[in-house]
Amino acid sequence: MYISSFHGIIENIKAKPLQAKLLLAQGKGAPRQGPRVRDILGLAKEGRIPVQGVETAHLDRIDPDHKGIVLEILGSQAEPRISLEDFLKAEKEKSLVLILDHIEDPQNFGAILRSADAFGADLVIAPLRRASPMSESVAKASAGAAAWVPICFVQNLADAVRKLKSAGYWIYAADMEGKPLGKVDFAPKSCFVLGNEGSGVSRLLAENADETVSIPMRGHVGSLNVSVASALCMYEYARRYS
Fold first, then answer.
1. Are residues 16 and 116 in the same domain?
2. Distance CA 27, CA 55 (A)
3. Of 42, 73, 104, which residue is a domain's last?
4. Are residues 18 and 119 in the same domain?
5. Residue 43 domain-assigned?
6. CA–CA separation, 6 vs 165, rounded Å?
7. Pair (68, 134) in one structural domain
8. 173 pairs with which residues across the strands?
9. Of 16, 128, 171, 225, which residue is 20 to 30 A from 30 by alpha carbon distance?
10. Which positions ≥6 away from 200 have C-beta within 8 Å?
11. For residue 175, what are the contacts with CB-CB under 8 A and spacing of at least 6?
């Protein structure tokens, strides 16, 4: 996976990826190294991340909008960063978890991760199939937050819901017909289920939810983008348990 934005590169280096290297444009056509590039090179040196000089054309093929430096994160991005079982071993009195029910748009996935970092979500759960994988687009849309938010990829979301409920989590499915967020008494250990951009929360997950919640709206459009909806849900939880 490649990260080309300055902010994304910096946040990923700070998060200390296990395997990574910087690709630095050199030679004819290479952009001049400004202060931000020099800062990145300094962080890479501190973090013992190798720097490889490459032709500008090589970076052009990765991202035509690069700034002369790209971070390459090596290894499979589909493997869980943390397993749900390991996460649940650390018993917490208060905890916020998100389940992304087959979110397909990488921009939405990245924006949700950015909000998850901002509001202190403890875990984001996503399916391995029929959903946006971790990618350069997701990392870029997250503005670096993807490097910090614990993410767990699972085979079966319904099974993840059952495990969370057994661990004391209250499951809230987001739906336009649900109870308004402001009237919901959120449990200290809460999990929000956000549905697919087109079809919403799947029937099986909705049936296994403890409560359905909605966001009151006054305008003419009947729904919100899923990344916006997730941010409002997390804000409402964080406001009460900050």
1. no
2. 6
3. 73
4. no
5. yes
6. 40
7. no
8. 193, 212
9. 16
10. 101, 175
11. 195, 200, 201, 206, 212, 213, 214
